[in-house]
Amino acid sequence: MRVQTACLGLVASLPTAFAYWPSYYSQNVNVYSNQQPDVTIETLFQFPNNGSWISNLVTRRDGSLLLTRLDTPEVWTLDPTNGSAAMLHSFPMVTSCFGISEIEDDVFAVVIGNFSSKTYQPTPGSFTVQKIDFTSASAKTKRAEAQHTVSEIAAIPEAVALNGMTTFSRESHLVLIADSPVGLGWKVNTQTGEYSVALNNTKLRPAEGVALPLGVNGLKALNDYVYYSSTTRMEFGRVKVDSEAMPVGDYETIASGFLPDNFDVASDGTAYVATDPQNSVVRITPYGQIALVGGGQLSTKMPGATSCRLTSDEKTVYVGTSGGQVAPVLGQFMEPAKVLKITLN
Ligand SMILES: *[C@@H]1O[C@H](CO)[C@@H](O)[C@H](O)[C@H]1NC(C)=O
Ligand SMILES: *[C@@H]1O[C@H](CO)[C@@H](O)[C@H](O)[C@H]1NC(C)=O
Ligand SMILES: *[C@@H]1O[C@H](CO)[C@@H](O)[C@H](O)[C@H]1NC(C)=O
Ligand SMILES: *[C@@H]1O[C@H](CO)[C@@H](O)[C@H](O)[C@H]1NC(C)=O
């Protein structure tokens, strides 16, 4: 009864865009609990204000993290050894930053564009891919705290709302970027700026009848496959691709029934997926078994977990959050965005 009441409060507080979620909330909230992996979870850093929203994060070679923000067009840097964070770059003339991925040693591509974190409406045509370079000669001559240069890789005016990004091949300079409302994976050559559609499938499109058109969200290229999360379809899957990132197999659903946001995949195919309004990170084996790693529907440990990133040794998962803005925990609890460290024991 208590849970039922809480769920009603939660649903009542959601924007109408999220009205499709009640069916999900009636599911057993403890569905994963009997397989919980052995982990320790700590908070590394939290922004001061409600409304802050980390959309993605990535690790640098020196062990520090880069965070992209959706509520403001900023990229932040965070030292996980002492929780020290600072703004690295603010992009002019846009509202938001999304996917971020390393394209060469200490060179990163970042998706930016206009998106309202209040109404969830993108501005189609406003999306571009930018480069943050920590290695260029001019970067090295700058002040210690700002040793980077920023330049545009490509504008993609045909895109509706670019979101997660993965480096497909460093050798051929290709990244793949999710276009969430239309269910596409754009392929961008980060050297030439040329772009085209690589992935286009029903499984990447928003579920039918949902008010919020959010299909493919995150992407990750690994071992001849591109893994994807498709949020309103509540599916996590993969498709085999050729060396040009063109599909050569079926879109295979690996696991379903939860709301996947951004994720990372370990070299053995084990995925760590942030479940944003479900306030958790789940682990998915290559065979589709789901286990709760941390947080939970009614937990305030990681409200609005948006993104996961494994360290190169695959012993740690960093998690970024939105503080629960999309669906406050129990319909009420919200907090500023934060970064957690999950140590896989
Ligand atoms: C955190 O560590 C970095 C690198 O060792 C150092 O530059 C920075 O001053 C430290 N910040 C705090 C708040 O201790
Ligand atoms: C994107 O938002 C910025 C900041 O609000 C605004 O200056 C710019 O004109 C917008 N761009 C488009 C294409 O609407
Ligand atoms: C994606 O595929 C659909 C269905 O085959 C097609 O109608 C649409 O034009 C394609 N979109 C792009 C951008 O290629
Ligand atoms: C954030 O919002 C919550 C309401 O969910 C409020 O209790 C809390 O004090 C706010 N925190 C900050 C830092 O403003």
UniProtKB/TrEMBL annotation:
Keyword field: Signal
PANTHER family assigned to the protein according to its UniProt record, in alphabetical order: NHL REPEAT-CONTAINING PROTEIN-RELATED, SMP-30_GLUCONOLACTONASE_LRE-LIKE REGION DOMAIN-CONTAINING PROTEIN
Transmembrane regions: none
InterPro entries given in the database record: 6-blade_b-propeller_TolB-like (IPR011042), Hetero-Diels-Alderase-like (IPR052998)
KW Mitochondrion (keyword) present: no
Coiled-coil segments on the chain, per record: none
Protein known as: SMP-30/Gluconolactonase/LRE-like region domain-containing protein
Signal sequence segment: 1-19
